[in-house]
From TrEMBL:
GO terms for molecular function: hydrolase activity. It holds the Pfam family Acyl-CoA_dh_2. It comes from Streptomyces aureus. This is Hydrolase. Keywords: Hydrolase, Oxidoreductase. Residues 247-364 form the Acyl-CoA dehydrogenase C-terminal domain. It comes from the Bacteria. PANTHER family: ACYL-COA DEHYDROGENASE (PTHR43884), ISOVALERYL-COA DEHYDROGENASE, MITOCHONDRIAL-RELATED (PTHR43884:SF12). InterPro entries: Acyl-CoA_DH_C, Acyl-CoA_Oxase/DH_mid-dom_sf, AcylCo_DH-like_C, AcylCoA_DH/ox_N_sf, AcylCoA_DH/oxidase_NM_dom_sf.
Amino acid sequence: MSVDVGVIAAPDAAPAVPDAGLVPAADRLRLLAARHAADADTGRSLSREVTDAIREAGFARHFVAARFGGTEGSFEDLTRAVISVGEGCAASAWCASLAAYSARFASHLPEQGHQELWGAGPDTFVATGLMPAGRARPADGGWRVTGEWAYVSAVDFADWVMVCAAVAGGEGPPQLRFFTLPRGTYTVRETWDSVGMRATGSHTVVVDDVFVPAHLTLDRADMLTGRNGSSGVPAHSVPFQAVGGLTFIAPVVGAATGALAACTGSITGRRRNHTAELTVVRASGRIDAARHLVEESARVLDRRLFTPEHMARNERNAPFAAEILREAVTLLVGAAGTGGLGEGHALQRFWRDITSATSHVALQYDTAARKNYSAVLLGPEG
């Protein structure tokens, strides 16, 4: 199949909704997402009501420029909002977080790309395949792209996808670029079968010889370094290292908070004893510690503290928070006993979601933190 992005009309963006604040909107979304969470888990997808509410709450527009009707919001507000949604449904929070951060990635597109994505409104939903795969070859006015990208969360209801591919030609390692494609120019293969985070719909995107015009591509190096020649919005020029795993750990903090509430609600009567009380107290300390570290990472970004020490610490904070949140939910499952593992109990869903989410590559010490933060602590390698 040969497709030309330039001749396919992009889907109309949802009309802008007056911004009343992301955090209050997220609190309302949390209640809705919680009501649908069990069905989303068993059905392996978010309901249309929830995906529409994610968009209407303002997640997709959070980092979009004000000139397009976007919020130009802060990392701290986004982090608190994602945590709030995660208390009701981890998968909803995961998709909400990616809606915001994918728009931030797309801000590195040339100006014409901004117009194409947000000219009709700020609530365009972009899904992103961050890991390089596939290949691109130069073509007149752009590139032709072919490949497959696994684990593209929220792709089922995204308006566009961004995928990273190697560009052929030249000496040395191949250049990596992101390519932005509207719905209808790619196919989705349903491959997501994880036992947790089932409703994220993190399926595989398949692109078969699609032409992508130059204004819908960006150099991956610009995203990594924070260079942005198309936008002066502060959040659009943040080095990727500083962001680290914040995109993925905030939903987990929320899920762990939801797990604590689910567990404590089940400890009544004979189940309330010295051991159970001690266990939930220990778990709550881990959850609070993780929340403090994650919110601190967001404040580092808002204050633009892009020193090697701050950026490496942000990288370290995410896998450490993931580690202690896994410990916390394990403690909670033990405190709740067999009842907490019943299919109708929210605790077991949060347990599975946290286990699945914290397996993400961005939340591993070796891939996300070891090299840079060890250099801060020990100095560069000999």
